């Protein structure tokens, strides 16, 4: 019997979030509400330990990808997600899909790591990281492990149409994912950060390219990709996703929240 698509992943290193429901542009944090008292900043965090020097954005260093918000010292890109680790059989399916899709868009690149987003990529000031993580831990503690099916091929673009993605949309398990997003949104609201998309299309991105190439990939290409998935041996087992933990990446820091 083939293994499921994803299992517990002990190491992830996404540089940025993938596209959301026809858009996944990151947004900067808004100022704190006037009526909300500010939490005291721990003394140990008053000095920003970030050692990186200010950088100049250069999309050529990142495959042509464009930042959705400028780099700013002391501001950390933060993302909550379900981590995935693909099995060998899934990588075989991925190779078939990307190879075929490249006959329509030659610049497509396969994703090297996989995840399902539970938040947008938001900007968090360094001294709010620990309070943010503690709040996430509290809100996510009651949740149990669960399964989904990721078997519907879809095309996505990020919010500013600078990147296009091919992904596998979740066809079952949507309710459990919405419950998780609801709790993550509560934490984001505590810090005046943008919440997740309304009516989200939960998915695992498989490949990406620069620019809006959705018109080339939808229609006939999309149907052919779905046929490849449907005909792939033991696809019903292969694309059964088991979620065992939630993770949060903030800058170069990773935090894990095991599901019960």
UniProtKB/TrEMBL annotation:
Biased composition (Low complexity): 27-37
Protein name: U6 snRNA phosphodiesterase 1
A GO CC term attached to the entry: nucleus
Keywords from the named record: Hydrolase, Lyase, Nuclease, Nucleus
InterPro entries reported for this sequence: Usb1
Catalytic activity entry: a 3'-end uridylyl-adenosine-RNA = a 3'-end 2',3'-cyclophospho-uridine-RNA + adenosine; a 3'-end uridylyl-uridine-RNA = a 3'-end 2',3'-cyclophospho-uridine-RNA + uridine
Coiled coil region boundaries: none
Chain residue ranges for the region called Disordered: 1-39
Gene Ontology process terms (BP): U6 snRNA 3'-end processing
GO terms assigned for molecular function: 3'-5'-RNA exonuclease activity; lyase activity
Function description: 3'-5' RNA exonuclease that trims the 3' end of oligo(U) and oligo(A) tracts of the pre-U6 small nuclear RNA (snRNA) molecule, leading to the formation of a mature U6 snRNA 3' end-terminated with a 2',3'-cyclic phosphate. Participates in the U6 snRNA 3' end processing that prevents U6 snRNA degradation. In addition also removes uridines from the 3' end of U6atac snRNA and possibly the vault RNA VTRNA1-1.
Gene3D superfamilies listed in its UniProt record: Cyclic phosphodiesterase
Domain of life: Eukaryota
Annotated HAMAP family: USB1
């Amino acid at each position: 019997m083939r293994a499921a698509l994803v299992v517990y992943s002990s190491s992830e290193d996404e540089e940025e979030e993938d596209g959301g429901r026809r858009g996944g542009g990151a947004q900067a944090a808004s100022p704190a509400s006037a009526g909300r008292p500010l939490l005291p900043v721990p003394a140990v965090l008053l000095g920003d330990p970030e050692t990186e020097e200010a950088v100049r954005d250069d999309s050529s260093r990142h495959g042509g990808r464009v930042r959705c918000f400028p780099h700013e010292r002391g501001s950390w890109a933060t993302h909550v997600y379900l981590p995935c680790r693909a099995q060998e059989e899934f990588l075989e399916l991925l190779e078939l899909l990307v190879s075929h899709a490249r006959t329509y868009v030659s610049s497509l690149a396969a994703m090297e790591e996989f995840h399902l987003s539970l938040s947008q990529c938001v900007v968090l000031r360094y001294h709010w990281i620990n309070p943010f993580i503690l709040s996430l831990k509290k809100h996510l503690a009651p949740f149990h492990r669960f399964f989904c099916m990721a078997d519907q091929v879809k095309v996505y673009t990020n919010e500013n149409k600078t990147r296009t993605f091919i992904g596998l949309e979740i066809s079952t398990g949507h309710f459990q994912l919405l419950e998780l997003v609801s709790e993550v949104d509560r934490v984001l609201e505590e810090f005046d950060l943008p919440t997740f998309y309304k009516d989200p299309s939960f998915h695992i991105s498989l490949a990406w390219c620069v620019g809006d190439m959705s018109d080339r990939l939808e229609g006939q290409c999309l149907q052919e990709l779905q046929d490849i998935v449907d005909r792939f041996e033991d696809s019903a087992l292969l694309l059964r996703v088991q979620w065992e933990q939630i993770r949060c990446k903030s800058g170069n820091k990773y935090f894990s929240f095991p599901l019960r």
